[in-house]
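Subject: for your reference before the review

Hello V.,

The reviewers asked for a structural picture of the protein, and I figured it would be easier to keep everything in one thread rather than splitting it across files. Below is the amino acid sequence we used in the manuscript, unchanged from the supplementary table.
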Amino acid sequence: MAEFDTWAAYYDFLHPGLPGEAEFFVGQAVKRGGPVLEIGCGTGRLAIPMALSGLKVTGLDNSAPMLSICEEKAKAVRLKRNRLALVEADMRAFRLTEKFPLAIMAYRTFMHCLSSTDQLACLKAVRRHLVSGGELLCSLWATQPAVLARFKTESAKGRGVLAAEVPVQGEDITLVHYINVWRDDFLQILHERHLVREQAPDGRILHEERLRMTRAWITPREMEHLVCRAGFDVVAVLGDFNGVPLGPGHTEMVWHLRRTR
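And here is what came back from the structure prediction:
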């Protein structure tokens, strides 16, 4: 079972993406004209708008339930079948017959590779699927020691900190989301435990799910070494989705990479 299988029913409500992210990635894809490979496409938050823009998109994810929701959403907007191909595969070891001028890894997808071995395997797998001079756009969290220091180094008890209360449109339900996070400094891994409650207007708990998420943090220096070892040139490193170069105060880093010839 993929880690995100149990997230599928709640993912779109609790993870809407980052401000400006969708506009950036869809805009960059349209600018290049496709076809596009999206690694970690999930429920299609980016893949479907790219395909609706007229591009041919291949969306890859290791979670069948997430891909199933993506397919349902594509049908709901009457997306032409030849515009979006969905592939269930591991981003560290996938093999497709097609090569692409552009690949995208958005919303910190790369952080789900938990070791340097996994990270290199993923980058090399993407590189194999790019044409000569093909590009990769990859966004991930810009690690800040001061932020890391806020997390405990051992699992916390209890339901955690309230992260969000999200009304479900069309239903008399609010999703109440709690989160616990702790860090493993040696492995550079963040362990997350999430509690999601489906709550009625009168406060009754109708259902609850306990979900997990595990991610590795990567510093800019580490990322630079990884992409070079994997066979990429660094075109630019941005600190936001408006084109500003990465600086000390940024919480996001967007790597614009090009396959070495």
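For the response letter, the relevant points are probably these. The mean pLDDT is 93. Residues 214 and 253 are 19 Å apart (CA to CA).

Happy to draft the paragraph if you're swamped.

O.
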